[in-house]
Design a protein that fits this description.
Layout: H1 4-9, H2 11-20, H3 25-68, H4 72-108, E1 128-133, H5 146-153, E2 156-157, H6 158-165, E3 171-172, H7 174-193, E4 198-199, E5 205-206, H8 208-213, E6 226-229, E7 232-236, H9 241-245, E8 252-254, E9 260-269, E10 288-298, H10 303-321, E11 325-329, E12 341-349, E13 354-363, H11 367-372, E14 375-377, E15 385-386, E16 388-396, H12 397-407, E17 415-416, E18 430-431
Parallel strand pairs: 4-9, 8-14
Antiparallel strand pairs: 1-11, 2-3, 5-7, 6-7, 9-10, 10-16, 11-12, 12-13, 13-16, 14-15, 17-18
Length: about 425
């Protein structure tokens, strides 16, 4: 959530930021003007409420004076005035809460402001490649896509998954199931042992206010799965960014404890609303998938450097697996709702003869912290400040499985196990048909 004080003082900067994200000038102007009007109405009401409270206090003192002066008529008149003020204040407090909600609801759907060095563009075609790693070899004529490899082995079953759950689900068996498990364990060990992240096993079901804290609600509710719980509901996490980031919600963290770095391997659940017809074959876009997530909580001066560090941690996963990749910076039109800047890491998939996203690392500034009321305080600070939050895939396990199958496939249909995964595979060097 953006700071209304900043908006009030810098309305044109917000108009320009929304324009960079693809908003029309009319929509941007109207949105910013509407926000300022809502804030002015709220502030005017608060001023009137404060004036009435001051008058009530003064009138209460005047009642005492009137009684001492034996002026009962004046005292009764003042008592009537105080009673009217009390009713106004009572109603005014409810109106204040309503005006607060009106403003908060309007702020809740505004995206974050991009950093100045983010390239301006409309969509993924305007993203800028930063670097590449590894050799992208010509696609041999016998190369197949991951689902063809898995189905030929009899270890990847989409038909049975559809009988169980419908489309966009997969049943993995045998050595491919073990290979996916190995990938997740390898990533966790790398991030905890070498990169200094603390492993967490978080809840997979969370409350609405937790989803609101990281920006999934209210704007992206259609992308979520919910289940009834008591008199309300709980949402299945679309990413463990949600519970990991919210570990500091409504808390004040001492600055010397920052940065906090968390990692988790969890299933993730997404409805994939709006993706009909995209990646319908195979495992690229699933309703349920596993991902190792990286989350950092920093002070305001460290978040940019932490963003570079986090991206390098995710890149290290692919380097250890010896998978070719490229890192791109997303343009303003392709960047996520809560991000100020995002790096996507795209792994090479020979079966598709294309780079596909396997990790997305974003710095959010204090955007999520304001929604969570997560703050920190330095030794010499007179007031608390909002923390800065970052999140990144470290990496998507299912897509890493796809990349291993396609990059390590052999002409005879077997798949070589990457050296880094062999300790997790009982020393096996290849996997083949069941």
């Amino acid at each position: 959530m953006l700071d209304i004080r900043w908006i009030r003082e810098n309305p044109q900067l917000l108009v320009e930021a929304l324009a960079k994200r693809g908003w029309s000038s009319e929509e941007s102007d109207a949105t910013v003007s509407g926000l300022i009007e809502k804030d002015e109405a709220r502030r005017a009401h608060l001023t009137a409420l404060q004036e009435k409270q001051e008058r009530r206090n003064a009138a209460s003192r005047e009642i005492g004076n009137a009684l001492r002066d034996k002026n009962p008529d004046l005292a009764e008149s003042l008592k009537a005035e105080v009673a009217g003020i009390k009713e106004f204040i009572q109603n005014g407090e409810a109106e204040g809460r309503r005006l607060d909600k009106v403003l908060d609801d309007a702020l809740a759907v505004l995206p974050n402001v991009p950093l100045d060095d983010v390239p301006v563009g409309a969509d993924e075609h305007d993203n800028v490649e930063m670097r590449r790693w590894g050799d992208v070899r010509p696609r041999p004529n016998w190369a197949r896509e991951h689902f063809e490899i898995g189905e030929a082995m009899g270890l990847m079953d989409f038909e049975r998954a559809a009988k169980l759950s419908g489309s966009r689900f997969t049943v993995l068996k045998g050595e491919i199931a073990r290979l996916e498990r190995a990938l997740g364990q390898f990533m966790l060990d790398l991030h905890t042992n070498e990169h200094g992240y603390t492993e967490v096993i978080p809840p997979l079901l969370v409350r609405d206010d937790v989803l609101y804290g990281t920006g999934q609600l209210p704007k992206f509710g259609e992308d979520l799965f919910f289940t009834p719980h008591g008199e309300g509901r709980l949402g299945l996490i679309p990413t463990s960014e949600v519970p990991l980031t919210n570990l500091v919600r409504e808390e004040i963290t001492a600055q010397e404890k920052l940065p906090l770095r968390f990692t988790a391997l969890t299933p993730c659940f997404r409805s994939e609303a709006g993706s009909a017809g995209r990646d319908t074959r195979g495992m690229l876009r699933q309703h349920q998938f596993y991902k190792v997530e990286l989350v950092s909580i920093t002070d305001q001066d460290s978040s940019i450097a932490e963003h570079e560090r986090m991206t390098q941690c995710a890149e290290t996963v692919l380097k250890r697996l010896e998978l070719p990749f490229r890192t791109v910076v997303l343009c303003t039109g392709d960047m996520g709702f809560g991000a100020r800047k995002t790096y996507d890491i795209e792994v090479w998939l020979p079966g598709q003869n294309a780079f596909r996203e396997i990790s997305s690392c974003s710095v959010c500034g204090d955007f999520q912290a304001r929604r969570m009321d997560a703050r920190y305080r330095g030794k010499d600070d007179k007031q608390n400040r909002f923390v800065h939050t970052l999140n990144g895939s470290g990496v998507a396990v299912g897509r890493a499985l796809i990349a291993v199958l396609e990059n390590y496939q052999n002409e005879d249909g077997s798949v070589t196990v990457p050296q880094a995964l062999r300790p997790y595979m009982g020393g096996r060097e290849k996997i083949g048909a069941a």
